[in-house]
TrEMBL record:
Top-level taxonomy: Eukaryota, Viridiplantae, Streptophyta, Embryophyta, Tracheophyta
Pfam families linked: RCC_reductase (PF06405)
Organism of provenance: Cannabis sativa (Hemp)
Transmembrane regions: none
GO biological process, one term: chlorophyll catabolic process
Descriptive protein name: Red chlorophyll catabolite reductase
PANTHER family (UniProt xref): RED CHLOROPHYLL CATABOLITE REDUCTASE, CHLOROPLASTIC (PTHR34685)
Matching InterPro entries: RCC_reductase
Gene Ontology terms, MF aspect: red chlorophyll catabolite reductase activity
Top-level taxon in the UniProt lineage: Eukaryota
A GO CC term attached to the entry: chloroplast
Length: 308
């Protein structure tokens, strides 16, 4: 979930066009498979971030896909949504979305990166990974986002966003946030001098994250120090939180929701996702990529963020 306004965004990635003569329908299918693999490869390259950040993202995506392997369907994103760039070649992005199988608790997993060259010669890089569950379970989702607006500044968002009101359901708070000691991960990170709490300008965002959410700004005049913090601290904490999510919300998840709770979850998920996609895509995409690309990406992503 990108929580920055459109004037803070932009990116860069290009690929060689793929050309082949098509003889029949099977050739079409084969080319589509090749393009899908190419799209995932572009996503997994994370070409504009530092080595520690790239390693973290690749490890997390691999852990999620391996951990959910039999519960996920292959990606069906069109190649021109898997990666795209603006006409001036200053903004580039890649998306990776896989739906869960109907028999699973997974609705879809969502990953992406965006790179924007800034007028001052710098660059903005955002990498993200989320996992959304469906209404067959009330377990929290998973959220990671890393926003690096300069070599000296990074914002980290890491959370298991709740899908029930924690004030109304204290057992839910106990099970997923207190018993798992998630807050200990935030406390470890905030002991580092360069790490300070970050307060998003979006009151909506501040309302939907959990009380154990890690939402911090990491600043250092020495850019390599931020990479050290990623490598020595953020990497371990993010992987611990992902492991907790996989174990508590997927592997050990055998609870059933009744029809009343299912309808509540559908309504809440729809509201949260509608606002999320509005914040993340509606204003920034046209500004960054122009109306044609924005409409193409928006139309595709909307299908995943809608609930039924």
């Amino acid at each position: 979930m990108v929580v920055f306004t459109h004037h803070q965004l932009q990116s860069r990635f290009s690929t060689t066009p793929f050309h082949m003569k098509l003889d029949d329908h099977n050739d079409n299918d084969e080319i589509e498979k090749i393009m899908m693999k190419k799209g995932r490869k572009a996503f997994m390259e994370f070409p504009y971030v530092s080595s520690p950040q790239k390693k973290l993202m690749v490890d997390l995506v691999s852990t999620v896909e391996n951990g959910l392997n039999k519960k996920l369907l292959p990606s069906t994103l069109p190649p021109n949504v898997q990666y795209y760039q603006n006409q001036t070649n200053t903004t580039h992005a890649s998306l990776h979305i896989r739906s869960g199988k109907p028999s699973s608790h997974i609705d879809f997993i969502y990953g992406g990166w965006i790179h924007r060259e800034l007028p001052n010669g710098g660059a903005l890089n955002i990498t993200s990974l989320s996992a959304y569950l469906n209404a067959s379970t009330n377990s929290p989702n998973f959220l990671l986002e890393i926003i690096r607006s300069s070599p000296e500044t990074l914002v980290l968002i890491l959370d298991l966003p709740p899908r029930k009101d924690l004030a109304l359901y204290p057992d839910y708070l106990q099970k997923f946030y207190e018993d798992t000691e998630l807050d200990a991960q935030r406390q470890i990170l905030e002991k580092i001098p360069e790490v300070k709490p970050y307060f998003s300008s979006s009151l909506y965002f501040r309302r939907i994250v959990s009380p154990t959410a890690i939402v911090v700004k990491i600043e250092s005049e020495a850019g390599e120090r931020i990479d050290e913090i990623i490598e020595e601290h953020v990497d371990l904490i993010a992987k611990r939180m992902l492991q907790i999510w996989l174990e508590k919300c997927i592997v050990e998840n055998n609870e059933k929701v009744d029809e009343i709770e299912r309808m509540y979850l559908l309504k809440r998920d729809k509201m949260v996702r509608s606002k999320t996609i509005e914040i993340e895509f509606s204003s920034s995409l046209p500004y960054l990529f122009g109306p044609e690309i924005a409409n193409r990406v928006w139309g595709t992503v909307q299908k995943y963020f809608s609930t039924s």
